[in-house]
Design goal:
Structural class: alpha+beta
Largest sheet: 4 strands, antiparallel
Oligomer: single chain
Length: about 110
């Protein structure tokens, strides 16, 4: 059992079905393959046991928690650069959803 984590990501978020979870875990999901080809980060997790899994695709800004980073800082120009780069890479990967800033708790159970 691990510790709670707080995930900060800029990109797109999908709620996964059971079949999609297996495809993501085995790197057979088309979105994950396209993201890696475009040099984007991916992150799969879920809030807690019994909740649906989610998939984040874009740029990882940080994962904060006892077992992860304790601090992360980005200035405005760095964040603007990440936002522009991510939008272009998502388009390159064929992912047309509008990117957002995602702040996600992942609680251990």
């Amino acid at each position: 059992m691990g510790a709670d984590a707080f995930v900060a990501f800029y990109g797109v978020r999908y709620v996964l079905t059971d079949d999609e979870v297996e495809a993501v875990e085995t790197n057979h999901d088309r979105r994950v393959r396209a993201a890696r080809g475009a040099k984007l980060h991916t992150y799969m997790g879920r809030l807690t046991d019994g909740e649906p899994y989610f998939l984040l695709i874009g740029m990882r800004l940080g994962i904060l928690g006892v077992e992860n980073d304790s601090y992360r800082c980005l200035d405005a120009s760095g964040l603007e650069r990440i936002m522009a780069d991510t939008k272009g890479k998502l388009a390159e990967a064929g992912l047309s959803d509008e990117p957002h800033l995602h702040l996600q708790l992942e609680a251990q159970y």
